[in-house]
Amino acid sequence: MQLVFDLYGVGCRKTFSTPNLAKELNLKVGKLSTGDSLDMCAEDEAAILANDATIKDMEGAAIAYVGHLLNVPVLFLKAVTDVVDGDKPTSEEFLQNLNAVTIALDLAATKVVDFINGKSCSEL
User: Fold this and answer.
1) CATH number at residue 92
2) How far apart are CA 120 and CA 110, in angstroms?
3) Which of 34, 38, 44, 114 could disulfide-link to 61, CB 3.0 to 4.6 Å?
4) In total, how many domains does the chain have?
5) Does residue 2 sit within a domain?
6) What is the domain range of residue 22?
7) Residues of 5-19 as b/e, b for ≥16 C-beta within 10 angstroms?
């Protein structure tokens, strides 16, 4: 009996659409994908490209899955600390960019909360 774990890892989950939020705050919109390691292995890269994904995010994929199971809409605010196709080792690039990315994410999160405060879902 052959086990096919790659099919277990494929799941297209929709996030909550927020076109007004993205436009107002000039946020990029993209598709998350997942993988089995911090580094970008050839199999992960192939799956990301095949599914028109933008970024690899293992935790985000898990949250999207749970939101789907519970029928709870989700949206993500993501900041990137490392560029997998860069010329530096992933761990080095992560540590080098962590502080700046954390500050940028803090500012963006504050703007997102301010924007959604008092709005209905259809206004987002």
Assistant:
1) 3.40.50.1580
2) 18
3) 34
4) 1
5) no
6) 13-123
7) eeeeeeeebebeebe
Token pair listed for 76: 């993500």
3 domain-assigned: no
Q: Is residue 25 part of a domain?
A: yes
Contact 67, 84 (CB under 8 A): no
Residue 59 has pLDDT above 60, yes or no: yes
pLDDT at 8: 55
Say what the pTM is: 0.72
1 inside domain:
no
CB 34 within 8 A of CB 56: yes
